[in-house]
């Protein structure tokens, strides 16, 4: 039987993985729904469709990393920093991205609880 800490880590890992995987797949399927959320400073450097594909691939890799269970302290830190980047990159969208604070906090909790 799993103890509560192991169960909490498992729930955090898979919950975070679902969030990143959903965002990645949804942006591949419906790019127009997501492209407007890209930060303008970044789309001035890289064309928005390219940037969205690259970021979506990154999110998918992050989701797979979380599912793998390997180096969870680092995966939690990377996930938390990703959420901070999303929130900070366009503060005018905070009415939408405020939910990302909870996702980022969950990632920090995973990093704190991680054994590896």
> Into which percent range does the helicity of residues fall?
over 70%
The Cα radius of gyration reads 15 Å
Count of extended strands = 0
Measured between the Cα atoms of the first and last residue, the distance is 21 Å
Please summarize the sheet with the most strands: none
Helical segment count: 7
Strand proportion, as a percent range, falls in under 5%
Q: In terms of per-residue confidence, which ranges show pLDDT below 50 for 5 or more consecutive residues? A: none
Order of helices and strands: HHHHHHH
Summarize, please.
This protein has helices at residues 4-29, 31-34, 40-43, 48-68, 72-89, 94-97, 99-113. With 116 residues, it is mainly α.
Feature tags:
79% helix, 7 helices
Task: Describe what you observe in this structure.
With 116 residues, the protein is mainly α. It has one domain. The chain is built from 7 helices and no strands. It is elongated and about 45 Å long. The two termini are 21 Å apart. The mean pLDDT is 95.
How would you summarize the topology of this molecule?
Blueprint: H1 4-29, H2 31-34, H3 40-43, H4 48-68, H5 72-89, H6 94-97, H7 99-113
């Amino acid at each position: 039987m799993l103890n509560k800490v192991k169960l909490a880590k498992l729930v955090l890992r898979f919950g975070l993985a679902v969030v990143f995987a959903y965002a990645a797949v949804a942006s591949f399927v419906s790019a127009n729904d997501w492209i407007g959320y890209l930060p303008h400073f970044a789309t001035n450097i890289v064309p928005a469709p390219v940037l969205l594909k690259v970021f979506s691939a990154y999110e998918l890799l992050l989701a797979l990393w979380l599912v793998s269970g390997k180096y969870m302290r680092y995966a939690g830190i990377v996930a938390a920093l990703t959420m901070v980047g999303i929130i900070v990159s366009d503060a005018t969208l905070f009415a939408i991205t405020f939910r990302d604070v909870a996702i980022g906090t969950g990632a920090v909790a995973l990093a704190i609880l991680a054994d590896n």
